[in-house]
């Protein structure tokens, strides 16, 4: 796939590959700087198991706690117990889901781009079905 | 058993007193100002960070010495994080973010030493840090964008009636940020230290049961060693997560529109 791309655009192909190669070298050199490499490693670490689970859970629970507490406070203020608490708690659930989807989108954005060759199903596997 | 009480490690003890403000004279009422073990470890954390950074960069070598290299790595690590999450404009918050990251990281690492006090295992500390972040985000957001900061709560491209439902949800989502930020750090450090202490306590209890107990103690001992390694990872990771979310929130203050 990588070989066929420059062939489609013969005029720009060589320039592109040249700047691409330079960009790659710059990127690689930057990645070698220890601080940057450590940050990249941390980003990927964050994507593993328990850390991600705890992040999601706390995002969700925090929204529900805040909304319920706010509802109770407003109820005490207006004497409408428990109506506002119930309404705000439901909104808290919605806000929690919003938080979780945002966190997930952020994690997806930080995730390394998967190798396109690995996304294509292997032929031998298909024969089994 | 005091030796294996898993909560004992979080006890705040008074080291010395600065005296009371507004008390009745017999020690009741008012504020009692005390230098606690928690305060001691916060001071130690700050002294260690400041001392190391000042001493290691004193030479200002163009070719850095090993000590200077660690400081430069820390700088690049945080600078890269800020630039990636909040853009170049976010770099004006670099001193704040760097301070926050090194403080949380070293406080967590201090907590990993036996008999040391884990400052971040108390909700009041992490809540204060999270509220500081939120105060800065709100203040700077309003200072820079004026009322435009409120666009943070109004996602673009949503029809009027739906906004009535979406805006309160967005506000709740914003309000939940300091809670989740502080609870996550506090929860991770607290839970990790308790679990570590519980398994270590099993070793002590089992070895009191003679030969079979001592052999059986190998299992919790192995668990304790594995958990210690995990806790070091969690300590670094939670400092990182706390900082990266700070950067994300600062980015919201700079660019409030979604």
Q: Would you kindly provide a written description of the structure presented here, covering whatever features stand out?
A:
The complex is a heterodimer of chains A (129) and B (258). Chain A is 84% helix and 0% strand. With 129 residues, chain A is mostly helical. Chain A starts with a helix and ends with a helix. Chain B has one domain. Chain B has a two-stranded antiparallel ribbon. In chain B, helix 1 (37-56) crosses helix 3 and helix 3 runs antiparallel to helix 7 (218-254). Chain B is globular.
Structural topology:
The complex is a heterodimer of chains A (129) and B (258).
Chain A: H1 4-8, H2 10-32, H3 34-46, H4 49-78, H5 83-110, H6 116-119, H7 123-127
Helix pairs in contact in A: 4-5
Chain B: E1 14-21, E2 31-36, H1 37-56, H2 66-86, H3 94-111, H4 123-145, H5 160-207, H6 210-216, H7 218-254
Antiparallel strand pairs in B: 1-2
Distance between the termini of chain B: 55 Å
Order of helices and strands of chain B: EEHHHHHHH
Shape of chain A: elongated
The description of the largest β-sheet of chain A is: none
The geometry of chain B reads as globular
Number of strands of chain A: 0
Would you identify the regions of chain A where 5 or more consecutive residues have pLDDT less than 50? 1-12
| Rounded Rg of chain B | 23 Å
Strand content of chain B: 5-15%
Low-confidence spans of chain B: pLDDT under 50, at least 5 residues? none
Order of helices and strands of chain A: HHHHHHH
Question: Largest interface, with Cβ-Cβ < 8 Å?
Answer: A-B, 32 and 34 residues
How many structurally independent domains of chain B? 1
Assembly type of the chains comes to: heterodimer
Kindly report the average pLDDT value of chain A.
Answer: 76
Treating each run of at least 4 consecutive H or I residues as one helix, how many helices of chain A? 7
- Helicity range of chain A: over 70%
Structural class of chain A: mainly alpha
* Number of structural units classed as domains of chain A: 2
Average predicted local confidence, pLDDT of chain B: 90
């Amino acid at each position: 796939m990588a070989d066929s791309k420059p062939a489609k655009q013969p005029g720009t192909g060589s320039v592109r590959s040249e700047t691409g190669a330079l960009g790659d070298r710059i990127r690689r050199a930057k990645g070698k700087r220890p601080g940057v490499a450590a940050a990249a490693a941390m980003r990927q670490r964050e994507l593993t198991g328990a850390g991600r689970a705890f992040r999601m859970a706390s995002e969700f629970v925090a929204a529900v706690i805040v909304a319920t507490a706010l509802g109770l406070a407003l109820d005490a203020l207006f004497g409408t117990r428990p109506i506002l608490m119930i309404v705000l708690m439901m909104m808290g659930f919605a806000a929690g889901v919003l938080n979780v989807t945002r966190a997930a989108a952020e994690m997806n954005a930080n995730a390394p781009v998967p190798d396109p060759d690995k996304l294509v199903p292997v032929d031998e596997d298909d024969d089994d079905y | 058993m005091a030796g294996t009480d898993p909560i004992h490690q979080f006890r705040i003890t008074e080291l010395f007193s600065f005296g009371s403000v507004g008390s009745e004279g017999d020690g009741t009422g008012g504020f009692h100002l005390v230098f606690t073990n928690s305060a001691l470890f916060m001071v130690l954390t700050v002294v260690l960070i400041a001392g190391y950074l000042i001493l290691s960069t004193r030479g200002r070598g163009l070719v850095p010495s090993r000590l200077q290299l660690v400081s430069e790595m820390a700088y690049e690590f945080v600078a890269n994080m800020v630039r990636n999450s909040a853009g170049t404009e976010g770099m004006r918050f670099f001193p704040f973010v760097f301070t926050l990251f090194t403080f949380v990281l070293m406080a967590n690492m201090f907590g990993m030493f036996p008999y040391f006090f884990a400052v971040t295992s108390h909700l009041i500390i992490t809540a204060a840090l999270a509220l500081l972040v939120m105060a800065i985000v709100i203040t700077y957001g309003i200072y820079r964008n004026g009322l435009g900061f409120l666009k943070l709560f109004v996602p673009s491209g949503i029809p009027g009636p739906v906004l009535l439902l979406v805006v309160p949800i967005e506000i709740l989502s914003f309000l939940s940020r300091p809670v989740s930020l502080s609870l996550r750090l506090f929860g991770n450090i607290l839970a990790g230290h308790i679990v570590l202490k519980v398994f270590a306590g099993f070793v002590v209890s089992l070895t009191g049961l003679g030969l079979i107990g001592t052999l059986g103690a190998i299992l919790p001992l192995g668990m304790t060693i594995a958990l210690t390694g995990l806790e070091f990872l969690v300590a670094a990771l939670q400092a990182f997560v706390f900082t990266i979310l700070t950067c994300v929130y600062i980015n919201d203050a700079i660019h409030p529109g979604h």
